[in-house]
Write a structure and sequence with these properties.
The protein is mainly beta and 657 residues long. Among the domains are: 379-456, no CATH class; 534-657. Helix content is 3%, strand content 71%. The strands form 3 sheets. The chain has a 28-stranded antiparallel beta barrel. The chain starts with 5 loop residues before the first helix and ends with a strand.
Length: 657
């Protein structure tokens, strides 16, 4: 590798310092700098001075290290705007944010490493012909940021973005063309580098036949995490139309047509085609119907699924107390190796009525399904199954017999592919698969992810399933709620010989909620007598919010729950507590304390997530500052990973002025 000479480095630093000096000198101009063909507003100045200390101790099967880092950061923000020749021709906005950073890192058993870096952050935007029917905007942005929440692993990222947007503002067919290139590097518990190029077209037509929208895009993304490389190419086109067929706007027709193609290293190429028609008809104020048709086709390198469906929905409100709904539908699905057909109908009632001291709600629902199957037993591919990874909930994949080697997990946009045993873990519970996040990974608690996988089907047979549900809730004095829910699902064979267990599920749920002065108490019990993963669960949660106080606020909440898996007899318990306290010390400052503990104990999951933070913040006119201390302890005993982190921040800021 060839390194620049000291003279070249000195010249580069001299140029950078010279540019900064010129920008600061321009701040002394009291009036707007204007000439006949050029205007520059008085530049605004902002400052950011900070000191950070972070001590991190990470251990696990693939890592065992302790680092202590001291960081000094000085940043100057200089921003101005104006126009060239005429405001109607070219407007510009410029922000220059040079940063000086000095890092000192000492690893346990290693030498002290000191680095000094200069980061040139900036934002530039040039808008041409702003008031014309066609407007071009060119922009570029380079920034450095720290991503963190109250009690999670901090990560730093550097992002370079540039692109352009062309707006055609024609009244009949306004259209926007855009291009965006983004390159980012994120460093935290793990390092992720990502680079993407995106082209997008948006257009709208609303002169006749309602409103029509077209959205088309192409995105190419490359991602590298801990030496694991992923490449993904996404093409997408969507056409939508909504139109009122009558002058009184009681009949609405919705149309949708879409195509997307995803070509990824992990999953191969998959093409999605979608078509839908929906007619919504409001006959009277208390009577409406809904008619829908939908066509979906998913085609991958090894598996193809084609589905057609029809549905009807009627809703009627009687005396503003009884809401009746009737549903019926049919669908046909053809896939590689066979086909299935489904027919369903159902009715539900929801009754609301005021009673002395409160309100009573009763709901009843019945549904009947018939499923016809004709296929050769084998693997069936599932695309984009949505799963919310909540630490306190049991999240299972929808099918049994899953090939665990085929599981691919991505974010809800399909852009980011997560890494097994780094971001998430696969757990087998009987015949089903549980997906759970790893607390030291890149998936947030409660985040939605999309799961691709394949499962092996059983022998085909025809069946009918009858579902019934009943529920009642009573709200008293606007403070106390009691509720009970019962649901039953029973499957029977119409023809053929099933090789899988038939559905015979009974679920009972009872609970209560009480709001009284400063506190809210919630208790729930659920018994699931199901053919797949029968369990018994109970939980209690208490939230206390004393006050109001003149110069202080407080909130403390705690919860505890247990889940017992009946087939294995194993028990999983969840305990958590969160506290938030805030004091207004002076009219211009405040002091905050936050603490959190989440502990999950069981045979399948065994984690500890502990955090504490205290913050002193002040603000006086254009100046502000804060002193922050945060402690984080995360431990996942199943994968034997531990992260302990101490973090101190001292910062002073001057807002742009």
């Amino acid at each position: 590798m060839r390194y620049p000479s000291p003279m070249m480095t000195l010249k580069s630093q001299a140029k950078q310092c010279g540019l900064i000096v010129l920008c600061i000198i321009s701040l002394t101009v009291r009036e707007v700098e204007a000439r006949r063909y050029f205007l520059m507003e008085r530049p605004m100045l902002g400052l950011d001075l900070s000191y950070e200390m972070e001590k991190s101790d990470r251990s696990g099967p693939n890592i065992n290290r302790a680092d202590t880092t001291h960081t000094f950061l000085e940043r100057v923000d200089i921003e101005t705007s104006g126009w060239v020749y005429h405001p109607a021709l070219a407007e510009y906005k410029i922000k220059f944010s040079p940063e000086w950073e000095q890092d000192s890192t000492r690893s346990e058993g290693g030498e002290k490493r000191t680095t000094r870096s200069f980061f040139t952050g900036y934002f530039e935007e040039l808008t041409l012909l702003k008031y014309k029917p066609y407007t071009l905007s060119i922009f570029s942005n380079r920034s450095r940021s720290t991503l963190s929440s109250s009690f999670s692993q901090r990560s730093k990222s550097e992002t370079d973005v540039y692109g352009a947007t062309l707006s055609l503002k024609y009244r009949i067919l306004p259209t926007i063309f855009s291009y965006n290139h983004e390159k980012s590097s994120q460093k935290g518990f793990y390092t992720t580098d990502r680079e993407s190029d995106e082209f997008r077209v948006n257009t709208k037509y609303d002169q006749h036949l309602g409103t029509t929208l077209l959205d088309a895009s192409y995105k190419d993304t490359t991602q590298a995490t801990q030496g694991i490389f992923r490449n993904q190419e996404i093409k997408n086109a969507t056409l939508q139309n909504s139109s009122n067929l009558t002058k009184d706007r009681k009949v609405l027709l919705l149309f949708g047509l879409g195509f997307s193609s995803v070509d990824a290293d992990a999953t191969g190429r998959t093409d999605y085609t979608r078509f839908s028609e929906n007619l919504q008809w409001r006959h009277r104020e208390n009577l409406s119907t809904d008619y829908s048709f939908r066509y979906d086709k998913n085609a991958s390198d090894v598996f193809t699924t084609e589905t057609k469906s029809l549905s009807f929905h009627l809703q009627h409100l009687l005396y503003e107390t009884l809401l009746t709904s009737i549903d019926t539908g049919a669908s046909s699905s053809k896939f590689t190796g066979g086909n299935t057909g489904q027919y369903n109908s159902g009715v539900s009632f929801n009754y609301n009525r005021e009673v002395p001291k409160g309100r009573l709600n009763i709901n009843i629902g019945y549904n009947y399904w018939i499923v016809n199957q004709d296929f050769v037993p084998g693997y069936i591919q599932i695309f984009n199954e949505s799963v919310f990874l909540d630490d306190s909930a049991l999240r299972l994949l929808a099918h049994e017999g899953v090939d665990t080697n085929s599981i691919i997990v991505s974010d809800n946009t399909g852009t980011i592919t997560y890494i097994k045993d780094i971001d998430y873990r696969i757990i087998e519970i009987g015949y089903q698969i549980r997906i759970s996040r790893i607390i030291t990974g890149n998936i947030l608690n409660g985040q939605e992810v999309l799961v691709h996988y394949r499962y092996i089907s059983s022998s085909p047979f025809d069946s009918a399933t009858f579902n019934q549900s009943y529920g009642v809730s009573l709200n008293l004095w606007s403070a106390w709620r009691l509720y009970y829910k019962y649901s039953n699902s029973r499957q029977k064979v119409l023809s053929g010989t099933p090789t899988q267990r038939l559905t015979d599920d009974v679920i009972n749920t009872a609970g209560t909620e009480l709001d009284w002065k400063w506190s809210r108490t919630t208790f729930e019990f659920e018994d699931r007598e199901t053919t797949t993963t029968p369990s018994q669960k109970w939980s209690i949660k208490e939230t206390v919010t004393p006050g109001p106080f003149q110069k202080a606020s407080m909130k403390i909440s705690g919860h505890y729950g247990e889940t017992k898996f009946k087939e294995t007899g194993s028990l999983e318990s969840v305990f958590g507590i969160v506290e938030e306290v805030q004091f207004i010390t002076t009219p211009w400052s405040r002091l905050r304390f936050e603490g959190s503990l989440e502990k999950i104990s069981g045979r399948l999951r065994n984690t500890i997530d502990l955090g504490f933070m205290t913050v002193f913040e002040w603000k006086y006119r254009i100046w502000s500052g804060e002193i922050r201390y945060k402690f984080l302890h995360q431990e996942d005993r199943e994968v034997q990973q531990t992260n302990k982190n101490h973090y101190v921040l001292c910062e002073i800021k001057r807002v742009l002025f």
